[in-house]
Amino acid sequence: MMKRIQKFQLIVVGALLFVAGCGSGTDEWVEARETVYPASGVVTLDGQPVEGATVIFHSVRKSISAQGMTDEDGRYYVTTYEDNDGAVAGKHVVTVRKSEYVQKKTKHHTEEEPSYYKVATEILPAEFATEKTSTLEVTVPESGADDLDFKF
Prior knowledge:
The chain is α+β, with helices and mostly antiparallel strands. It contains two helices and twelve strands; from the N terminus they run H-H-E-E-E-E-E-E-E-E-E-E-E-E. Strand 4 and strand 5 (65-69) form a beta hairpin. It is elongated. It starts with a helix and ends with a strand.
């Protein structure tokens, strides 16, 4: 019985060493990533912070984007690869949107058999919700920026 336990322990230790060895070296995908720089700001509507808005930076020069979501203070930090790492340097078209879902009665609705559906409505101006219609632009410097605010 003791030999069986020792054999099992040897197998477990060997497997752990093998797995640990597999993690070393370089990762070509990580090394090929574009360099990103911190980018953040605040989104407000009529002077009040907007919580839960999605902010996306669409790079004009590269096929890459970064996105973030506003917190209760309206502050966002964009992410390209890892949480809040930022966006590539240069000019970006920006989309900002926040949808609210409103419940509406269907044409089959009755008091005895209620029937509803939800309709999304934009809280912020709809023209800024898509890359094709947005006129919002920012430039992310290589030093990063924390004042990329959007006021609606």
